[in-house]
What does this fold into?
Amino acid sequence: MKIRYLKIAFVAVVLLTLIFSASFFGCKKEEAAAGGGMQVKTYTNAADITIGFSLWTMQFTFFQNLEKGVKDACADFGFKYIMIDQNSDATKMVQDMNALVGQKVSGIVSTPVDPGAIGPAVENARNNGIPVVCADIGKSGPVNALLISDNFKGGQLAAEFLDGKIKDPAKQLAVGNCLPQWTYARQRGEGFLSKALELTYNVGANIIVQNPSAEGGYDTMQQILSAVPDVSGVFFVSGREAVGAAQAIQAAGKDIWVVGYNGDPEEFQAIKDGILDATILQEPYYIGYRSVEILKEILMDGKFYENVEVPVDVKLVTPENMDQIAADILEKTGNSAFPAE
Amino acid sequence: MDEMKFKRTKQNLGAFWGNFGLPLIFIIIVIVFSAANPSFATSYNLLSNLGFASYVGIAAIGMTFVIMTRNFDISIGSMLALVAVLGSSFIPRIGGVLGVISTILISCFLGFVNGIFVTKLRIPAFITTLGMLFIFRSLAYIYTNNVPVYISDRFWLYIGNGKLFGVLPFPILLMAVCYGAAYLLLRNSPVGRYIIAVGTNSRAAALSGINVDNIKILVFTLLGFFVGVASIVNSANLGAANPGLMGQNYEFQVITAVVLGGTALSGGNGSLGGSLVAALIVTFLGNGMGLMQVNSYWQLVATGLVMIFAVSLNKLKFYLLGQGEF
It folds into this structure.
């Protein structure tokens, strides 16, 4: 009996190995012949174009506004539009990208929950002649275009703002940074550090927020206060963390300038309440809209985009210009810049 | 006489539902989504979904064995992330083939450790694997400093993305082989009978000479093996092993598939075929609703409702068979 099972197992393993080897090495030849680059079908009629959008999550206002930009652009150009929500799940992100390929969409816009994990899915789409534009966050491997906020400039704006308020390079600054894998968001910290160095400030602490949330910002601010008790200004490279940090400063009864990044509703509210001093505003609506514009250029005008990084401008939001900026956001997106009541 | 006839009809219905209930639900889901969206029924989409179903389906085999012995393992999501980052980080030094083998060996070892804690230290499986959930995830963070490991090895990537002769996704074949081997183990080998005996009544099994602890350690190790295979498929799909994002809520997806598939939480009774069909239901349901642009929050509500409905129908089966109340 045992020998019979061993025989079955042996035959199964041999068959599996043969099939696998034949297929694996067969595939090698095919891919080598395909080479680099991609063939994109061009269209003359906008109504024939379908744009697929794979979105990180609809949970945050940033992504809601980005989605509005993609949707409005599709409506303006006369494209059909399909959106699939990744639900913050990297595996679902890949599954959704493949589903869009299966639906034979003409082009894909993606805001990847895990930019490091989107490479094979993008490759599959591009092998099927579907151009891919990443709208913010990042990418791995070649895409047609990546639209990304000018994060380095945003960091510099934050340092300039703190310098304008503190006006004394002898005072200490600090950074609440993001995790190393967020390659593009890390540029915010780099921009800040470079400008602070140029302005001859000393950055006494540069601590990574391990838990990206308001609580994480609160904890990190407490660590900064322990490391640099006389800190005068801090820059947190993400919005919710900045609000958490501002609350930690308030709880400690300190008078420290705080700048955030993103322009989240919580930040607008915190600036209004006088807890947060400023933030760097990203333009998600524009990023979404421009992503579709780029796909239009590829699909209808035959324009060549290969791994192009398109920087998107950022703005400083302070109590002085906050109302005007909030009004602009409301007009464009239909979403209030402030949290829903 | 009429009562006898009624009873027999009930039993026939129960037996029919037990054998064909879940496949029927699966077929209905496929028909409804195919009618609603022509893109759903394309061979590309169906094969792609079958491939993705392997992510849950492969680990569901091991979880079926574990639940059949009246245990649980809620550490598998963290285990998946840990073995993926470990195995993929070895690739530059030992190559893809040895990387795959070492990933599976490590995951077997982690499953074995879970089994030792549950059996030899008599710590309940829920507590042991809850603790391991934190330990495995933290070790993955510590080992990588929370930086994803990018995978470029062709062999490794082929396991998740390769297509046999350019058509059939390789994970489907892998899942089929795993289910075939597990079926032989469960139904045609003494070990399978021991697993069923331990789950049905571990005391009686011990009295009849079965080493209950060894069987429990074996099923945890087997679960580790299947999680290792799933981790390779998943990290190959993603092209990277991310210590924080991989395997989030994985344990619940796998346990859901196993329970939905008809494996009794009270042990003893389990169905590998049921777990497979349930994994397909969960995957195709998500894909179909996504293609139909159903709001993601409503998708979760619908998934929950379908699961409750399917489990209720499972109870109906036992009622019809005269093995319980409805």
Q: What stands out?
A: Residues 39-293 of chain B form a domain with the ABC transporter involved in vitamin B12 uptake, BtuC fold (CATH 1.10.3470). The first helix of chain B runs from residue 2 to 36. Chain B touches chain A through 52 residues (CB under 8 Å). Chain B has a mean pLDDT of 89.
